[in-house]
Design brief:
By secondary structure, the chain is of the alpha/beta class. The protein has a domain of 225 residues: Rossmann fold (3-Layer(aba) Sandwich), CATH 3.40.50. The chain contains 11 helices and 15 strands. The longest helix has 22 residues. The termini are far apart. The ligand CC(C)CCC[C@@H](C)[C@H]1CC[C@H]2C3=C(CC[C@]12C)[C@@]1(C)CCC(=O)C[C@@H]1CC3 binds next to helix 5 and helix 9. InterPro entries: 3Beta_OHSteriod_DH/Estase, Lipid_A_modif_metabolic_enz, NAD(P)-bd_dom_sf.
Length: 345
């Protein structure tokens, strides 16, 4: 039985609030006067004003406890994208998201903002200034992407203005910033092992990298714009820095900022992709005997060697989105935030 929450209520919940994006979102929500509950399988920090609920989003009862009196839910939980655990992705991103929707409806939540990904339309080939009307990838490049597609469809289809349950999906791309556990740490680890000497392809491919505070800004704008009859109900929105950059220029700027050499030598894209594919097949065949994780997976090679940048015109038009931190400043703040990853540290 749904208990309707009073209008104007600024109590929200962040599912996945212990993660990189989730924690930045929680911090900004607190600044803006929201009271926040975090629901996550782990607690990674403590903050005054935040109530933590430890639990798995596949557990409806645990969710219902965390969603009591909450009017707005952000769902930004996901398994690590680099994993190849198909069952885990399906359980968390598909069944788990279905459970989140059911729990929101049962708890009387009015708005659900999903963190999707621009990669739901990416198949490993060039996308230039892609808009939201591009079809979902028919051949997603990995289980992460395949299940993010299903997740986004579930959330958008659940939008029901009659029943007062409104949903929207934010599609960020290449999130970076302080405390990111993925992009900068993987890059530095690769450099420290002497493997960041090569540029895959001619180095001219443009990609979106999005500073985490812009992603947070997009989420909060969406939540505050999401009202009955608003054009954003049930729709996906690209949120990027709106400054596509050459993939290898971005990587070089971060590397040089941290004291490492920029990659210099070019390798043909098809050769590196073919080798990465071969290596990946080998890891599958040898999995019963040895386990090893190649740095250059076919997915990473595709992301590093193709154009993939997206238009955020729709977010500008429908919710007045404009990035709040430029790419240059975002990179400087990110580099500064990783003293322990500097060369020689
Ligand atoms: N990092 C990136 O470049 C991009 C990320 N995204 C999306 O943004 C969202 C946030 O990503 P990040 O903050 O980078 O990841 P993250 O790994 O730092 O955070 C994810 C959080 O979800 C939690 N979680 C995982 N499984 C759970 C479960 N079964 N129940 C409850 N909590 C669970 C984790 O404990 C973690 O705290 C994800 O949905 C991801 O798909 C989208 C585009 C790009
Ligand atoms: C070893 C180097 C060639 C590359 C190091 C950097 C990569 C770890 C990152 C470059 C682009 C990133 C990216 C994602 C993860 C980290 C990178 C591969 C995502 C797959 C994260 C989840 C998404 O939704 C899409 C992202 C696209 C870009």
């Amino acid at each position: 039985m749904a208990t309707r929450v009073r209008p104007g209520n600024k109590r929200c919940a962040v599912i996945g609030g212990s993660g990189f994006l989730g924690r930045h979102l929680v911090e900004k929500l607190l600044d803006r006067g929201y009271s926040v509950s975090v629901f996550d399988i782990r607690q990674s920090y403590e903050l005054p004003g935040v109530v933590f609920h430890m639990g798995d989003l596949c557990d409806k009862q645990a969710l219902l406890t965390a969603l009591k009196d909450v009017s707005l839910v952000f769902h930004c939980a996901s398994p690590f994208p680099g994993s190849d655990d198909r069952a885990l992705f399906e359980r968390v991103n598909i069944q788990g998201t279905q459970t989140v929707i059911l729990a929101c409806i049962e708890a009387g939540v009015q708005k659900l903002v999903l963190t999707s990904s621009a990669s739901v339309v990416y198949e490993g080939t060039d996308i230039k200034n892609g808009r939201e009307d591009l079809p979902y990838a028919k051949k997603p490049i990995d289980y992460y992407t395949a299940t993010k597609i299903q997740q986004e469809k579930l959330v958008l289809e659940a939008c029901d203005q009659q029943k007062g349950f409104l949903t929207v999906a934010i599609r960020p791309h290449g999130i970076f910033g302080p405390r990111d556990p993925q992009l900068v740490p993987i890059l530095v680890d690769t450099a420290r092992r002497g493997k960041m000497k090569f540029i895959i392809g001619d180095g001219s491919n443009l990609v979106d990298f999005t500073f985490v505070e812009n992603v947070v800004h997009g989420h909060i704008l969406a939540a505050e714009t999401l009202k009955s009859n608003s054009p954003i109900c049930g729709k996906p929105y690209h949120i990027t820095n709106d400054e596509p950059v050459r993939f290898w220029d971005f990587m070089s700027e971060v590397l040089v900022g941290l004291g490492y050499a920029a990659p210099r030598y070019h390798l043909p894209y098809a050769l590196v992709y073919g080798l990465a594919l071969l290596l990946w097949l080998l890891t599958l065949v040898l999995r019963p005997f040895v386990s090893f994780k190649p740095t250059f997976t076919p997915m990473r090679v595709a992301l590093a060697g193709t154009h993939h940048y997206y238009s955020c015109e729709r977010a500008k038009e429908d919710m007045g989105y404009k990035p709040v931190v430029s790419l240059k400043e975002g990179i400087a703040r990110t580099v500064q935030s990783y003293p322990h990853l500097r060369r020689g540290a």
